[in-house]
Each structure stands twice: as structure tokens, then as C-alpha cells.
């Protein structure tokens, strides 16, 4: 079954990347350039997709096996609802 579906799934993904994601990314670049031209350095740069690095020892809740769930979601992992 995988051999039947895989080529189709790959073609759908390639089509989506070509016709949806690529134009969307180019549009976002144009909008960012226009906003920078309009507002200059008075506007903070968009750093949504940038890599963030940190240093130091990871600390947090530790399970019984001594390994903690090291995540950076901003959500209390023991609660089903986000912490506010």
C-alpha cells in the first residue's frame, strides 16, 4: 500500500510547496521590506523563524526515572490547559 500512496503523496507535497509555500514566503519578504522602508529602524525585526540559542544547565521537573521532560512550550506539562 505504501508503494501505491507514496508517489502520489510526494507529488501533492511538491505541488503544495511550489504553489503555496513558495509564493507565501516571497509575499512575506515583500511585506517585510515594505514595512522596513516605511518605518525604518523604529520597527523591531521579525525573528519568528530564527534560531535561538541558550547556555546553562537544563533544570526542571524530574520524573521517577531521573529524566525530566525538557520542553520549551510555555505550558504547564502537568496541566491539560495552558498556564496563564
A few lines on this structure:
The protein is mainly alpha-helical.
Give the helix/strand layout.
Layout: H1 2-39
Give a structural overview:
- The protein is flat, with a radius of gyration of 21 Å.
- The chain is built from 1 helix and no strands.
- Helices cover 45% and strands 0% of the residues.
- The termini are far apart.
- The protein has 84 residues and is an all-alpha fold.
- It has a domain at 2-42.
Q: Ends: how far apart? A: 46 Å
Largest sheet: none
Number of helices in the DSSP assignment: 1
Helix content: 40-55%
Task: Determine the mean pLDDT.
Answer: 75
Tell me the Rg in angstroms. 21 Å
Helix/strand class: mainly alpha
One letter per element, helices H and strands E, the order comes to H
Summary tags:
single chain; 84 residues; mainly alpha; 1 helix; 0% strand
